[in-house]
Amino acid sequence: MMYRMRKYSIIPVMLVLCAGLFQSCKDKSKSKRESEDILTGKLPVLVDQTLLPVIKESADVFESSYPNSSLELMVRPEIKAVNALLADSAYVIVLTRKLTDKEGDYFKKRGIQPKIFQMASDAVVLINNRSSADTIMSQKNVKSLLEGNLSGQRLIFDNANSSTLRFLKDYYKLDKIDPKAISAMKDSEDVMRYISENTNSVGVIGYNWFLKAVEKNSQLLEKIRTLSIENVGEGESKGLFYKPSQSTIADGVYPFIRPVYIMNYQPNMGLGLGFSAFLTGDRGQRIVLKAGLVPETMPGREIIIRDESYIK
């Protein structure tokens, strides 16, 4: 009888302990939600590695402006960045394309409506060694290089999964690219370094990275240059060759222009929304403009679009 009473007396105690533990977990979860908002908390952000310079600068300014925020930039080539997004490694991503319908279905099935904003226009640029005689490249020759039909030269990309490779493949509507005609490095700096040492190759990088080399006054610029690319569109610019610059991107005459998107797949009103608003707002657009790219919305004061005449 005494044993039975002891046994039953334990039950209320266990119930009280379980209730206390449940309430504690609930309070911690509530506290965490309350400590995270559009300007507070920690946020992993997937970034296409060809866009790192401008996004890194933007993230630094954002964090210094909002000390309670912390951004973790997860830098990946495009394909790996998208795969990480679909694996829930992060819910905010910066790319030069939107997700495909198949990729977007993953979030659609979960009832998540993405918030997608274009923040800038960048470009894919071709570079070669200054010792090479070529300073221009026709569209026909670029396509021939990708198909492996132009002997004596190779295209060098920053990564086999790079957005620059995907861009050119889409631009020329190619089903496949000759793997013998291209090589892949680790990143864009490696591409510039390789081209500075080799005269029989053409490098392919994001304009953002070339501008970063200009900003740093890199010694590589003494050995490499951007190529002028043929415009095959309609109008007065057809048949003319244009170097990449802020002005030729803004005017739309440089052929290989690409958008830059900040895409937020957070299911709630979190820091992703705050960072997106910063990038597309006046301060973020000034950073884009200063970096040499073209902002989606021009900042609210008189500005000067830079040409590339100052670049060697």
UniProtKB/TrEMBL annotation:
Protein name per Swiss-Prot or TrEMBL: Phosphate ABC transporter
The question of whether rRNA processing is a record keyword is answered with: no
Q: Does the keyword Acyltransferase apply?
A: no
Q: Report keywords, A-Z.
A: Signal
Under the heading Pfam families, the entry gives: PBP_like_2
Q: Which InterPro entries match?
A: PBP_domain, Phosphate_ABC_transporter
Q: Which Gene3D superfamilies match?
A: Periplasmic binding protein-like II
Signal peptide (residue range): none
Domain PBP stretches: 43-282
